[in-house]
Design goal:
By secondary structure, this protein is of the alpha+beta class. It has 17 helices and 21 strands. Helices cover 44% and strands 23% of the residues.
Amino acid sequence: MNALRAKRVLSFCLALIITLPLLGEPIRFTPHELEYIANAPPIKIAYFDRTAPLIYRDSNQEPQGIFKRVTDLVLGHAGLKGEYHYYSDRQDIFTSDEDLMIGVSPEYAPPQMSLSQPYLRVQTVLYFNKRVNPDQLSEKWFSAVEGINLPVEIDLNYVHYYPTREESILAVENGKADYGYANIFSVAYYSIKESVRNIVTIPQEQGVRLYSFGVLKDDKILLSIIDKVIASIDENTLNNLIISEASKIERRVSVNVIFETYGKWLVMVSALIVIILVISTTYTIRANRRLKLQNIRYEALSQISNECLYEYHTKDGRLLFSQQCLRLFGSGKQLEEARVLLADALQVSESESSNFSIRLPEVSGGFGTYKTTTLHLEGSDAIIGKLVDVSEEEAEKRELIVRSQVDGLSKVLNSTAVKEAIAKEIEEREGDNLHFFFLIDVDDFKEINDTYGHLVGDQVLSLLGRNLRTLFSNQGIVGRIGGDEFCVYIPNATTIEEVILKYEALVERMEDNVGSLKASLSGGLTEVKEGEAFEEFFQRADSSLYKAKQSGKNKLVVAP
């Protein structure tokens, strides 16, 4: 163990001798500090993605930037190793198990954090669009980065937030915002990277920010080592490192840069392209001959076929129909409308073959549903296809869908469909109009079935459904919940009295006899509050309905 420790100390001393020319003066570590360096595991370093070029993550999610380079320099001179850990939220770092946080300014450091002496002094600048007068920033839009504290003088009513510093600078460049504040390194970095032309900068006298290392575990020895290394680093060395890192900018590629870098290769590639074009032209001529023969066969087939065939050319938008298509769509307005609709649909289709349905106007004046099958002809811009009339099949499908949503006896929406319709109405609710919901059921319906028979009971439900449709179908959503229980959802009502009058009209209509029977109704009414879930107002209406039943039936109870 002692031999291993001696080996580590010897390695550190050798590294110190090698790096000595880079330091402004020799580093004098205490015996405790030397022992700490020899035995310390890798230092756990916390950082969060601030903004380039200070500290950021590259395409491989590795830390880059000035803070990272300075940290590597300091740890290397101290003979220590480090492990970088990324945090998306700065506050999580303060409660973590990390040893060191890089890029900490005093105004953001918590009281329990010990700070090293500053290693970087950064000037804050005002950057603004050149059309803006920097002396008249009142009621101008400030470009802010999400999660960054705003200067106290900023009017919060005139702030645009952006996810990154780069986006906030580009917003000012493009006129989406008027001005902002940032460190001079970041403004210069993104101005060069994005080739900005509309941004002007002004240094701020009070806008200097110092950056230090933050020691998270009150590790005084580590803090002392870092302070000694920072004090020993030559200022020119540090400045060269900062300039080198700040100038690592991935500029946008221009035509001149491409020719300067790849000119010789471009000549060779151009020659190769000419050769390929010659071969391709020869192949195309042969393919056109085959296509001409296929076209002759297609024209013959379209003449003798009883199907609606068409040919569409993607380059010039020409759409040619067979004689059968002309019989379906005529030769006037319907034909032109059908040609436009089908051409638009074919432009969307980019695969070699496709199948889709489309509604087209017919010579009879109505619309028909057609299924089309298309095929792109190899070596040309032509698409050929056929239209098959599936209007009857589609009508049957729609009828089946309607049947699945409507209660067969009462002809109102069934339980599932009415809940879906109400949910959609709630989701699309706008304005300040009142919305109401009430439940209705037939009084003593079981006794009606037992006394008069289920046929009469069904006649009562059918009558109730017809009256509900007559009174509410144009104003609300009507459905059968189950058994003899029905519901009505009324959006955009003016007053509750209007809804109660509608209910009373329903009761009067139910006084029509079904045979010798006169059925009565009980109801529970409630107002639907904005943002309220279906289950909440349903429960209130159900409770009111129960109270109506318990208090003598044949009445409407309004929920409080």
